[in-house]
Amino acid sequence: MPLRTETEIEALVPLFEYLESLTGRASIADLDRVMRSIDVTVEDVAEHIRYCDEHYKRNLIREGRWYQAYALCWKSGQRSPIHDHTNTTCGVRVLAGRGVETIYEPSPCGQMMAVQSRPLNVGDICASQDSDTHQISNLQPAGQNLITLHIYSPPLREFHTYSATDGTVNRVRDVGNGCCEVVETMDIATFMKR
Ligand SMILES: [Fe+2]
Q1: How many whole angstroms from 106 Cα to the centroid of ligand 1?
Q2: Is 172 domain-assigned?
């Protein structure tokens, strides 16, 4: 895939050069460093900004052998599920608005427990991998959008979502076009034994 096209996003060239040079999964330290170093603004991903009234929208910018790059667009009140990053390194950079990241861990009773929340402001980076479990939310007032740049390495094909109200875990598969489907549901005790 050529690095430059008519609609090339100049600010993302250093990031894509790094991603195209990968011969394996990106380390969380390298992905964090590269995402901090780029000078990207929301205007750079303007052609990929699309929203959905029902849920946050995942808009694919580019995909290679060892990565996916998405622009995620969140209306006020839209939240990701509580999820992990199975066998993947994920880096997030806020391009517009203010998000919240909430970190979860299993509780003694087998449900997920929020252990930390932090604001994500423009330019902030949030890096996760493997069993790191979190939720990203747009909790700003009505009418205030959130736009985030997400890099997954390798492409995120399958991961888990966790119920906030019981011990249920879903194994979820990416079916393309920014959409996912549940392929298996289990309780967290069964999941933790795997
Ligand atoms: Fe995530």
Answers
A1: 17
A2: no
